């Protein structure tokens, strides 16, 4: 397997995996449980999820560490286990995919509002990410993925933390935008040009967007990113917005619908394309089929 | 500029020190504390809420404005007799049991306080019993519930049912919100209202109080 960034640059498009939470719930994750606690108690579930995405064609498989920063784990009272939780997640994915797919260490927001707007001290946030990322890097992830960010300052602290634990681990960084009447903005008021420039300047190797409102809007967001950068991009879309049907939460974008629209991402030269909330191994399979029709 | 619009203006810009000292000056000019509250602080927050709703400003500006409002409120509080506080009503808010996401709920609290409501914030991971008991004990008019996780939304229904079981569904109204929550869901579980975002939550509470 070639080094991650070399593979990103040479193409063809890399296919990322999809949602994790739905699998955990299937395996008994209860409301209010810490999703990352599974990493220590039920590693077999992580291996199952990883193998289903890998078999569906994912070339990047994420660790179950979205909420694995020390600050986020503190909300569940398990921050003492930050290192073990992150390490276990990385090892579980590696055990399944070996070096046939890239292991991506997922790093989501700390869940607090940063100073000066909120009460989370910048040093604490940086240290919280450092503990998580150090464990992920030591466990051998191929790339870190800082994702679902809405505050550019938090994203920059995460990038700083990543660079402080490793000078050479590749870093992807994505933000989540809302469609407003005035264009795409995060809830903290970051627009796409500011995100593209800010993330790149803070050291991200691959920039883009994840989560959000479905593939069609993600294409529009990707177009805005592409206007700001010639560098590598990543887009990981939700399967639409959650809807409640007969008391069950469902996402309405089918694998076929998502894959069809994802072709537009390919035309924009997006290097990494995967799924987020509501996507399944079937989405991964459809993306792979649609985007890699020509032999790679 | 007159002092009340100036306070409102500084509040909108998030200048807490300015709001604090101008509020003190306003009191020294013998303006009524209730007038300052209504025409400067609440008026200023109203503009902030309106601009947030149309995405002219974002969360950071709202949080700074809220801090400025609190700076002004702290000056006014000793001067606000119980009688002249324009109590628009009392509302109990919280993030439902099993859910630890409170940024949205906090924002709703800020907006409601800014609109002159008395807000009792139960924090996150709040059980149905706690919502209902607190509402009964404090004589609250409305319970506002927030959920970010699709898995915790069903707790909202439990609160609605518990109110009904205790015969409080006439006197305590319910309002729900949060990213996965929809108008349809609110209707389905029998909640009295749904707030799409923090700014519209204020409008909905006002409507429920009428």
Summarize the structure.
The complex is a heterodimer of chains A (296) and B (210). Chain A has helices spanning 4-10, 21-26, 38-41, 43-55, 70-74, 82-97, 122-138, 152-165, 192-201, 215-228, 255-267, 281-291; strands spanning 14-15, 60-62, 102-107, 143-149, 171-175, 178-180, 183-185, 206-211, 233-237, 242-245, 248-251, 272-275.
Write the layout of secondary structure elements.
The complex is a heterodimer of chains A (296) and B (210).
Chain A: H1 4-10, E1 14-15, H2 21-26, H3 38-41, H4 43-55, E2 60-62, H5 70-74, H6 82-97, E3 102-107, H7 122-138, E4 143-149, H8 152-165, E5 171-175, E6 178-180, E7 183-185, H9 192-201, E8 206-211, H10 215-228, E9 233-237, E10 242-245, E11 248-251, H11 255-267, E12 272-275, H12 281-291
Parallel strand pairs in A: 1-12, 2-3, 3-4, 4-5, 5-8, 8-9, 9-12
Antiparallel strand pairs in A: 6-7, 10-11
Helix pairs in contact in A: 4-6, 6-7, 7-8, 8-9, 9-10, 10-11, 11-12
Chain B: H1 3-12, H2 16-28, H3 33-53, H4 59-76, E1 90-95, H5 103-114, E2 118-121, H6 128-138, E3 142-146, H7 154-165, E4 173-177, H8 183-189, E5 193-195, H9 198-209
Parallel strand pairs in B: 1-2, 1-3, 3-4, 4-5
Helix pairs in contact in B: 1-2, 1-3, 2-4, 3-4, 4-5, 5-9, 6-7
